[in-house]
Amino acid sequence: MRTLGLIRHGTPGPSRDLWPALRARLGADEVVVLRLPALGWIEATAIAVAVGTIALVPDPVRFLAACGLL
Amino acid sequence: MPIGSEPSDEALFADYRAGNLAAFETLFRRWQAPLGRHLARMLDDPAAADDLVMETFLRLHRHRARWREGTPLRPWLFTIARNLARNRLRARRLWGWLPLASVMTRTSPPPAALDQVRARVTAAFAALPSAQREACSLRLLGELSMEEIARVTSVPVGTVKSRLFHGLRRLRVLLADLDPDT
User: Fold this and answer.
1) All structural domains of chain B
2) Mean pLDDT of all residues in chain B?
3) Distance from CA of B24 to the nearest CA of A (A)
4) A54 domain-assigned
5) Which residues of B touch A27 (CB under 8 A)?
6) For chain A, what is the mean pLDDT?
7) Which of A36, A66, B54, B86 is deepest in the core (most CB within 10 A)?
8) Counting Cβ atoms within 10 Å, is residue A52 exposed (0-12), middle (13-18) or buried (19+)?
9) Is there a contact between A6 and B122 if contact means CB atoms under 8 Å apart?
């Protein structure tokens, strides 16, 4: 049936390969991006002080309250 | 449309669900052209058809857990595409009420710039009632069987046969002067 050939010829498929675009969208669909702030010396000092306080002070809650932080 | 020893659509999709992305790529490359042609015919907009081909496969990927092994994949694939196309057409009709639509229409290429055969085929399909147009497009461009078309369009196979019979007869008449065999 030449009509079928005419119809297919007269109906172009996708003009470009769509796989790369779909692949990118599939990737974007799967990946959960977790963004954390960069860890500088200020953050490192704060973590060290917090850990040190909990480890060394006998009653950390009372200590923090006495310092006016709680 | 597996040829020879090529894996079936269902085998490829099962592989993909097991984590094989290459199987999904094979499936996509197998169906992007037939699905794209069908959607282009239903929407009369090749760019929108490209977009919906990707959206269809993206939905297939998102809902992959819902597919039960042993059920045919193609009717599901084309049903997703059908629903997306209907939503797109509905949205276009809604936009048609707004003044912006006239601006959007002007941006599309004029028919005179289109290849003559393409313009004639587009006009011939546009002359069909929507149910016949969909059945003919699914059969001729989507390459689905009668049974698959019946599942996609939720009508009995007899209705599909009738729509195809009348639609194809009309298409042959409308395109007769382009076809030297008729």
Assistant:
1) 1-108 (1.10.1740.10), 111-182 (1.10.10.10)
2) 85
3) 10
4) yes
5) none
6) 82
7) B54
8) exposed
9) no
